[in-house]
Amino acid sequence: MSQEQWTAVDSYTGKLLIPQDTTLERASRASREAGLPDVEVSPHQGKLLHLLARVHGARTVLEIGTFSGYSTIWLARALPADGKLITIESGILFAKAAAAHIEEAGLAHLVDQRVGKALDVLPQLAAEGAGPFDLCFIDADKPGMPEYFRWALALSRPGSVIVVDNVVLGGSLVESAGTDPAVDGARALHDMLAAEPRVSATTVQTVGAKGYDGFTLAVVGE
User: Fold this and answer.
1) Considering the entire predicted model, what is its pTM?
2) Looking at the record's lineage, which domain of life comes first (predicted)?
3) Which end of the chain is more exposed for a tag (fewer CB within 10 A), N or C?
4) In the CATH scheme, what is the homologous superfamily, with its name and number, of domain 3-220?
């Protein structure tokens, strides 16, 4: 199997199962044209997040890592009219681009954008009494994954779902500790999950247009 074939399969199934969406396409294209890194989730991953939020009946969502707003739009579209999504982004250019895309999608009334480092913003959310969130999506810098997960757990409730993206890192997850800060973060996250009695979790490897990676899905227990 090759990257070319993974991309072709994504293209084939996407045309059948993911309707063409000019707003999402513009969000993805505009980010690339502005010279921003192509780091948002794929259309298949975006729809998976949307379906997870719908199946779970999520009314409140926390997103750590807004980027272009692509995943934000997918998640916000799953919310009811009185739902709320809080998204955190440290990059000013990303945040400005995301705000425009979220506004174009007609979702600004559902989305509370916070600009700043997540580990500065998350304590502020706790102090404000934000949450508990029904669903948390973590897609930010990989060395910070363990701390982001701790905060997501603190801002959750029994039954909350936490999704962490990019945890396999092209298979580098199995490399020895100390080889790469991103690998260290992903391994520390898995060690934390193994020792955390409040959550039940699994990690799923994925291939597709974005290459070889994976995500962790965790459910908060009693």
Assistant:
1) 0.95
2) Bacteria
3) C
4) Vaccinia Virus protein VP39 (3.40.50.150)
